[in-house]
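Thread: Newbie trying to understand structure tokens

Hi all, I'm a second-year student working on a class project, and my supervisor (Dr. K.) asked me to get a predicted structure for one chain before our next meeting. I've only ever worked with sequences, so writing a 3D structure as a token string is new to me. If someone could post the tokens and maybe explain what I'm looking at, I'd be very grateful. Here's the chain:
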Amino acid sequence: MFKTARTRTITQKIIDQIRTAILKGKLKPGDVLPPEKELVEQFGVSKQTLRESLRALEHTGLIDVRKGIGGGAHIVEVDIEVTKQSLANFLYFKDLSIENLSELRKLVEPHAASKAAAFISKEDLRILGELNEKARENLEKKFTQEMSRNEINFHRVIAQATNNPILVLILDFVEDLLEDFKKVLKPDTTFSESVLDAHGRIYAAICDKNPERAAVEMLRHVQDVEDHLAKLKEDIDLWQVCFKQA
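---
Reply by user tm_fold:
Sure, no problem. This is what the structure looks like when written as tokens:
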């Protein structure tokens, strides 16, 4: 299955070959890689190099190395949470702004809403309606954390309705980042009320199976969220400047 790896980046070559085997369908979740001795011979590398490669693959979530009876390097389906954490680790070292996040949302979320209006299932439509109702109830009871969770899940259900795994991953990750911003900026109930009103309009457009209106309402919603959060950040930055000068 594998070829001898003889370059300065032997470990990466081993990783690439195993990834390619997964992409081609030669390896699937639940499959077990050949024993260590056999892999060492196939790749033409030392045990240490092979083990380093397997550790790297395990760290990325592609394999699970188990010991004992039934052990070995098992191919596993990468968990979406592991993937999002890797992306987050990368962005921790970037100067990510609300504008950056909103730019991506304005490109992707209206399209997702449009597709949802065209193809959403009755079950997902029911879930969207329930999420809006629960969020409204949480707002009235001032359960802000639960309300925020329902707001975010509203967008995730719309993403799922696209049946596009790339969009699902991107939008799921984007919602996580948005939640992080909201935890820092702490928007008030006025913000939450405007979000719920927007979700209501988006939901109505999806119920009416009107892709164009759903896209327009989603774009309007994303822009409103950006404007509100940017204003909050501006106020916080101004307060910090005044505090330092005092």
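A couple of things are worth pointing out once you decode it. DSSP finds ten helices and two strands in the chain. The two ends are 69 Å apart (CA to CA). Feel free to ask follow-ups in this thread.
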